[in-house]
Amino acid sequence: MSYFKKALKYAGMIVLAVLAVFILLLIYVNIPVSTENKDAQLGVTFSSRYASDIGLDWKEAYLAMLDDLNIRKIRIPVYWDLAEKKEGEYDFADVDWQLKEARKRNAEIILVVGQKVPRWPECFIPEWVGDDKGKKEEKLLRFMEVVVKEYKNNPEIKYWQIENEPFLNFGICPAFDKNFLDREIALVKKLDPSREVIVTASGEISIWSRSAKRGDILGTTLYRTIWKEGIGYFDYPIGPRFFHLKYFISKILTGNERAFVVELQGEPWVSGYTTNEPLEEQFKSMNVGKLKENVSFARKVGFPEIYLWGVEWWYWLKVKKDHPELWDAARDLFAENSAV
To answer: What does pTM read for this prediction?
Structure first.
């Protein structure tokens, strides 16, 4: 047998072996899981900015979330471009109000700081910052220092989250620099050593170890149904064991055993801006059945805290479109959760 034929044979064997391993992994991650972590605590991400963008009175929506849904775990972004519209001039009135109302009800807050925080377009950098990378980084660090000093004595703040899915190339953002991320984390830990830091990663397409080794707690997203150009709606062909496997590998590589689901899909993923699409289109990727299924799925992953994504949309459906079904379903889920 010629050298070329031998090489071709070995290459074919390698391809078949890789394919066999892939098929076995696909089978494994789809083996059903029956056990749910019923003790997992539910929370939400709330964006005053997004609530306003979809036409809501965001304070009304926030209070309804606290008092009607009885939510007591909330992830809140601090938007740099809103809090420092002019260099050196800070306006934390909206954040202050949210934290004060949470404190009244003994709610716990994850406060998200950085240039990349929840909601599109992901990065929220003031125009006055300019394009110089070094100067921008120093200005961001200065802003983060102001935020941490402003709120580190607030008892309702449970954790800091530094950036949002920093290793995921998603959104309208500058080039990512992991060394700068390390500087951000070091700064927050130095300013407030009393609190743990969360660093997040995509549940489906990111390598968790990069975030897990930097944070005290790994925060993962968890999406089930997305819309993809050229494909349309697409359900990830994975079960809870996929996340079990990623968690196991992450623990082996980093030693970090703390993990939350910080963003569980509770809102549609459509081709355009969510609320601009017809309701029937929105309901294809999120409805009452899917919301309940997603919470059940996340509980089977087993992490102790689960933060849902989409509370503003639920309220928009209720007050703007006379569709309270998602809001009512969420109320039931949180009522079950508080009874545990």
So the answer is: 0.93
